[in-house]
């Protein structure tokens, strides 16, 4: 057949398929609204259809299976959006929106890990120009200060563009009862700082946070084995320790503001692996606070340990035209080769389709945690 005839045949098939698809979606919604079938019965029904379709597919069985799986997800997305039911997540969202007080505040008690001069401090100052910062020793202490009500907000690093995620904070997000209410990105420029008079050749030890060490790995590798590399809790803490070195042989990898704060001088500048080195920070709160303009949603999901479980979630997002920004897996402690997943997507809970999708995930996943709906500056 000529190409024009082939296209004509395809057009005819498309015109016949569309009314059938629309009717099927409506029947899916009608069936759900009867309340007769349980989720388990719906799943059983889908397996029955897949079995029949696969038998009819012949050599194209794989493609037939994928087609019907996608069809099920479209039907699920449509009936959830049009469902009158309301789950816990919808009630939580409604409560958060009812408490909406306007623009994101510029002040408050803010918990930050480290000491003055840390990157977290600069991120906190960016988010809260009139904030009152409380410095604590660890990331977990930031979570505890917020969870206990000592501080209204906490600011924490969550990922770096060249060195990946701060896994400890993802795990704490899962364990602690907090929500994300804002995020921001800082361009990070690392310098090697030491006491006045020190040179690169005189340095015998370099200290910094493990993330900063990773971001400057190429520079550190160039120094060879003559320099000891020591991780510590915070870049600014490393600068403070370097300032107290009696011999001046200890240097710190930190940002430039630490020079003035701790009486140090830069002996090597812009030592990060990439000039496009950004760290993303999140602001957490004990309450679910959703401010105008919020267009990012973060979730933690644990899925059933079976083939296709993650695919079904991704297909659901695709069916609703939701853009997935981040997906990361993390092992579940005590479960061999089972994982929880951190999702970040574009969207607003004010969109009924998104609210319905979240409710569906809450009901179908092994565990579900809504981390927040927020914006990034």
| Number of strand segments | 15
Estimated share of beta-strand residues: 15-25%
The CATH class designation of the largest domain is Alpha Beta
CATH architecture of the largest domain: 3-Layer(aba) Sandwich
Shape: elongated
Which regions contain 5 or more consecutive residues with pLDDT less than 50? none
Model description:
The chain is an alpha/beta fold and 377 residues long. The protein has four domains: 1-82, Chorismate Mutase Domain, subunit A (Up-down Bundle); 103-188 and 278-285, Periplasmic binding protein-like II (D-Maltodextrin-Binding Protein, domain 2, 3-Layer(aba) Sandwich); 191-268, Periplasmic binding protein-like II (D-Maltodextrin-Binding Protein, domain 2, 3-Layer(aba) Sandwich), CATH 3.40.190.10; 293-377, 2-Layer Sandwich (Alpha-Beta Plaits), CATH 3.30.70.260. The protein has helices at 3-34, 39-57, 61-81, 88-98, 119-127, 139-147, 167-175, 210-215, 217-222, 235-243, 257-262, 309-319, 352-364, and strands spanning 107-113, 130-136, 153-160, 164-165, 179-187, 191-194, 205-208, 228-231, 250-254, 265-268, 278-285, 296-302, 324-331, 339-346, 367-374. The strands form three sheets. Strands 1, 2, 3, 4, 5 and 11 form a six-stranded mixed beta sheet that branches. The protein has a five-stranded mixed beta sheet with strand order 8-7-9-6-10. Helix 2 runs antiparallel to helix 3.
Summarize the model shown.
This protein is of the alpha/beta class. It has 13 helices and 15 strands.
